[in-house]
Amino acid sequence: MLRLVIKKEFLSSLRDIRLQISGTILIVLMLTAVLVGRHGQKEIQTQRTKAQSAMYDKWLNQGNKHPHSAAHYGQFAFKPKPVLSFLDIGLDNYTGISVFLEAHKQNEVQFSAAQDSNGMTRFGEMTAALILQVLLPLLIIFLTFDIFSKEREEGTLKLIHAQGLSMRQLFMGKVWGTYLMVLLIYLPIIILAYLLLDQRSSNLDPAIGSKFLSLTVGYAIYFLVFVILCVLISGFARNSGFALLTLLGLWIASCIILPKATANLADKVYPAPSQFEFRNAIKKKVKNGIDGHNPSDERLASLKQKVLDQYGVASIAELPVNWSGIAMQAGEEYTDRVYDQEFSRVEEIFNKQNRLSEWVGFINPYLAVRNLSMSLAGTDFHHHVAFAKAAENYRRAFVKKMNKDMEVNHKPGVAYGDYNVGQDMWASIEPFKYNLPSTSKVLFNQWRSIATLAIWLIGLLLLASVYAPKISKL
Amino acid sequence: MKPLLHILSFEWKNLWRSNVLKILLLVVLGAGIYGIFFGKFEIDKQETRISQVQQYERHQFDSLLIWARLDTSILINKEKYQKAVSPTGVGWNKHFTYYLAHEAPPAAGLCLGQRDLFPVYYGFNVTDLARQVNAGELANPMKLLTGNFDLSYVFVFLFPLLVIALFYNLYAAEKEGGTLLLLQSQSISLRMILFSKGLLRLLIIWSLATVLLLLGFVIQGISVFEHGYLFFRWLLIIYGYCLLWTLLMGMIVRLRKSGALSAMLGLGVWLVLTLITPALLNLFVMANEPLPNRAEMIHTLRSLNDKNWGSPKSFVFDKFYPENPQYFKKGDTTDFNKWYYASFTLLDKESDALNAQFEEQVGRRNALLEKWEWLAPAAMMHERLSQLSETSRQSHLEFVKKVHTYHQELKDLYYARIFEGEQFSYQDLQKLEEQL
């Protein structure tokens, strides 16, 4: 009996001209988004790989020079374009693309695409995520708003009831019938998207398969939540017009208005410092010490005493190693600590802001799926930070190596310009490589969103089983 | 004329009695007021940041003026005095960091535009500019992505929805309510009746827009009298935009479909024009017109810098003096400070050329978007509003131009002293202070 209802719902919606049109539009949009998006992602990734290796070449062929000059010459790190960003571009247009790595200084990841574009960019990019998160729910609304009222108006609801079918069964039949329809649109395209992945994509991110699978499941749950919600509301609506208005109102509030209001609110609740305050705090801490009572000249004096004691000599001139190299590395390590503190303070503020939207996800599943999808696609804030940290660690490692070489090999008494190293030294620094966070890490970061979707699903199923029998048959 | 007024007044009474209209208007009004306050909050935040750096700058410069008058026969005063009067700075520390702010134009709070993507001030000294002005403002990318809930957002996104909500059952309500036959039996044509009903709704929407815009000007403290022209142009754009949506809904009503179908059609058009077309345009342009690799800029500058330092001093001077003969003095080929500052001019020249190249590439890409902009009236309207409010990317570029000019002026003052081998006099510093 249940199967019959599912079949009936599925077939009748398949024959509905409104669905045929809007479904086709959705499929065409999805195809465009996936194909063009994948093409664009590949182009951008190729460009960045090229730029990365060109810059590494420049590093290798910088000629002979003092290691510290080489540290100033510096290197670059380019953010790889995550493979799944063609499904969900997330923050990619608003975060920087590359970072200059040089001695003494932690630079920011710079040059976002949005800064180079006109206002049109703010309207978003057509990706699968936009279609799946925003447009497909609309289709679900169109499919379900009159799912009960039509039968009520035509009098078939009483007939079906007379056949011995319980309201609960009928309700679930309608839910699964609609859901099947949604899957019919969703699955082929998601499979196509999967087929577009190639060997190169798994080189870039070995966990791509499991991320893709989680993404697919996440969206499938989101649609189910939406279908049950819509069927439930239309079951209790006075008439189809009222159901439609309610559902559209809900859609506009949760997909269009709430996300913006939430992000804006978060910015008010957890204000971030300005660039000026941020840089000043760093300058102050480097100068006066992290606790404010350990100025840089005192730090240097105590380091000097320590090194002199270590080598059992009385003055810098008698040291068997290069004092500048030691001092410079100690300076680096101190500023690194300051940078870590200040950068993670700002990072924590932004995380708090974003977490607010994750909490609001509990009343707005759109936000939950948006955050989860962005995260799995590798385009959320966590990924941006992970890249920035990887680049920074790489910077620290190569600057340290340069300082160490200076300490050991640049003999005291030899002029700065007279101690040079060459390509062997440059080549001993491996090219920068960044591994995207693993699937489990991503899922752990997004536990709130996952919990939200689970709670919504279970809650709605419970609600449905309690309230479905109370849906009026007249 | 009389029947028209008659219908209008009847329809008004009809509408006013239904709670739907009141709720809709209240929701949009509420959203608009929220948007106005949000915009004010954002602009206030930017202004606070600007005044913060300006205060800091003035405070720092005041110390320079005090230091320049210190009695240098006392040892501890010597260092401070040197810091104040050496145009080259002391050691690796440069003389002074100047700030230039991009003050908020009057209507910036009504349409924040692209202003949140860029810093509203830059700090720089007389060394090469490019490496000093490419730092961004600290901003949560998530907030940049979701965008600003300002008044322009309410006009661009929510007003069309209001139009749809007021129009979708313009015809269907009569039919479904059973009054259609009654109307058709009247001496006035049905078209006239529907037109009048539509006109009334448009007038309501325009009034709401006017009220909101007035509120926006008042709450954000923008004088309507002083900026009457600005107000008028805003109003004109919004009226035009609402009219466009009214016409679109009019076309849908003409199809004489059921209320539910008309609402869906309206929403479909809204989706296409505000969400789908801009997103598709962005997708195609992003995939086919790559953005310049701006890291090239840093690389070019570091290479040139590397060459400057790795070559004899004549490498820099041979390029610098022919282009800046006013600084040339016989026998000046060894001075470190002259060489050091001359090298920054070479870097500036190089980066200006490269930047022009980048902007050309970016310009091509944005021109492509502008060419197809008419397909996405919502994006077009938003762009117009942000141009009107001077919050578009273009306004930022103009600000950057001002930064370049200011930097050049400062350089002229500094270089004149550096290449004379002179220190700043107290009057020099006073002159610099006036420029702050």
UniProtKB/TrEMBL annotation, chain A:
Pfam families given in the database record: ABC2_membrane_3 (PF12698), DUF3526 (PF12040)
Coiled coil: none
Membrane topology: Multi-pass membrane protein
Protein name according to UniProt: DUF3526 domain-containing protein
Signal peptide: none
Ranges that cross the membrane: 17-37, 128-148, 176-197, 217-236, 242-259, 450-468
Residue stretches making up the ABC-2 type transporter transmembrane domain: 106-258
Higher taxonomy: Bacteria, Pseudomonadati, Bacteroidota, Cytophagia, Cytophagales
Organism expressing this protein natively: Splendidivirga corallicola
Keywords: Membrane, Transmembrane, Transmembrane helix
Compartmental location: Membrane
From TrEMBL, chain B:
Domain of life: Bacteria
TM regions (residue ranges): 20-39, 151-171, 202-225, 231-253, 265-287
Alphabetical keyword list: Membrane, Transmembrane, Transmembrane helix
Entry protein name: DUF3526 domain-containing protein
Organism: Splendidivirga corallicola
